[in-house]
Amino acid sequence: MKRARARVLVTGGAGFLGSHLCDRLIADGNDVICVDNFFTGTKDNIAHLLGHPRFELLRHDVTFPLYVEVDEIYNLACPASPVHYQNDPVQTTKTSVHGAINMLGLAKRLRARIFQASTSEVYGDPDQHPQSEDYRGNVNPIGPRACYDEGKRCAETLFFDYHRQHGVDIRVARIFNTYGPRMHPNDGRVVSNFIVQALRNAPITIQGDGRQTRSFCYVDDLIDAIVRLMQAPEGTTGPVNLGNPGEFTIRELADQVIGLTGSRSELVYRPLPVDDPMQRCPDITRARTLLGWEPRVPLREGLERTIRYFATLLAEAEPG
Ligand code: NAD
Ligand code: UDP
Ligand code: UDP
């Protein structure tokens, strides 16, 4: 659905999801301000938008106040993979919490609708399966993943308190594992790791016994859901789970990637990291009902597109 042209702020807009969101918002005819401190994002992800008359890039850290004039805010700024968010855990919590406060303060002043990229990690290592939005989670508050999980939980608290206390129009999505072009080749996430390893014919690193499960959503499906949530009627606060309920073991994923790349890689087994959840699968009943949304891209097709992206990236980085 096309809407009247809006001024839209996207924090974390040079990242994996943020850059796809900027593409979509520009294509829909909006003016986009992309804010990023390039902690994990890169200008390459948005290079094609630089110079576009409706696109503007601001280097800025969301832990500091930001004064701009916009109609809508999408708050995505935060490192998302364990390797990156554990690199500077204090900064990770600050980004989630101070970032949320600043963006909510901005939304409050402007009476702007604001979206929060929350995460399935708010459920921790779940003891309910699949996870619906009323499940309260099983998070270790002092473990190595806590800077991310608890930071995102606190951000959700802030969003709902700004909503109740100040009437801010909020949209909170709990995003499950998402993959696609522009994932970082070195951020340790399982889809990018396996594809890069397979394309190099290097050993595929399975952590644990490979029987833990994840559900993988292709990026285009996810962006569609985010925009639908933002366009849903007043009062659609969420939280709403967004993800693909197809559940696969990590071993199955490795086999698929090897099959699709025709790789000679062998499987090697590594220890399971601390607090690594054994099972994760979204219950997306609420997203189906509220947004009329359903993920469309099957894992095989999404992997093929992602493999093509990484093959090009590696060919450019490692010619010959
Ligand atoms: P990403 O690392 O590619 O993008 C995050 C972006 O935020 C990067 O461009 C980074 O430079 C920027 N950033 C980090 N700290 C910042 C700060 N203090 N100020 C300004 N910019 C900052 O990760 P992504 O996968 O695109 O994730 C985007 C959002 O979605 C994150 O909030 C993440 O928690 C959430 N999310 C992602 C997934 C997933 O599977 N990709 C799953 C759940 C939630
Ligand atoms: N803020 C911002 N941009 C704005 C308005 C507010 O970055 O346009 C920040 C501001 O620095 C403040 C935070 O958002 O620290 C929270 O704002 P709020 O109005 O809720 O709190 P207060 O200003 O009363 O502390
Ligand atoms: N994983 C793996 N090999 C890798 C990277 C990850 O087996 O090279 C596993 C990891 O232990 C976890 C799953 O794949 O069980 C998903 O990991 P990822 O970091 O992508 O996402 P998250 O744990 O945040 O869901």
UniProtKB/TrEMBL annotation:
SUPFAM superfamilies: NAD(P)-binding Rossmann-fold domains (SSF51735). Pfam families: Epimerase. The keyword Transmembrane does not apply. It is found in: Cytoplasm. Keywords: Cytoplasm, Decarboxylase, Lyase, NAD. It comes from the Bacteria. Its EC number is 4.2.1.46. This is dTDP-D-glucose 4,6-dehydratase, putative. It comes from Rhodospirillum centenum (strain ATCC 51521 / SW). The lineage of its organism: Bacteria, Pseudomonadati, Pseudomonadota, Alphaproteobacteria, Rhodospirillales. The gene is rfbB.
